[in-house]
Amino acid sequence: MSKFTFTEKEYDFISKKCTSYACNEYESSKTKRHQRNQHNKERIIKQNITGKIGEFASMFYLLDQGIECNSPDMQVYNGIKKSFDADLIMNEKPLHVKSQSKSTSDYLGCVSWTFQKGGKGFGHVDPLVIQKCDDLVIFCHVDHMNVDIYGPYKWDVIKPLLKDPMLDHLKGIKQCVYKKDLLNIC
Q1: Domain locations in the chain?
Q2: What is the reported pTM?
Q3: pLDDT, mean over the chain
């Protein structure tokens, strides 16, 4: 695990950009989210903000390590243009970023990261869950300006760690990687 801390100036700028993105993304995906049993607008927006902050933290962390990495995509896509494509490209390899906020992990009593496993209609299954691939994944635990970063890992090392979520209403449509399991492979 590595720690990354934004400067106040970086965090203010990035959190504003991420908030704007999250609000726009929510409006473009309400129908799909309802099909996934996700109805809490405030929670969805907070999760999207956390996700984008994790992407920026991952990018800065990798660049600080001298690793080539692109910037997070801040464009909001509609309908069929939405995808489960990698969030970043690291040294020409697809890198998926998974993030959880400290407030969520405090509420749940554990640190975990979710993957879309099922739902209604096309576009509801993250290909990582069902396909073999050479992609990379990095996990972020976001506490405002401070981010704990785990990875990057090869997906084939992480995939066996997928388990059901703690929340019953998400079982069957989500799978999770739990920090306690992740630490066992390090």
Answers
A1: 2-185
A2: 0.92
A3: 91
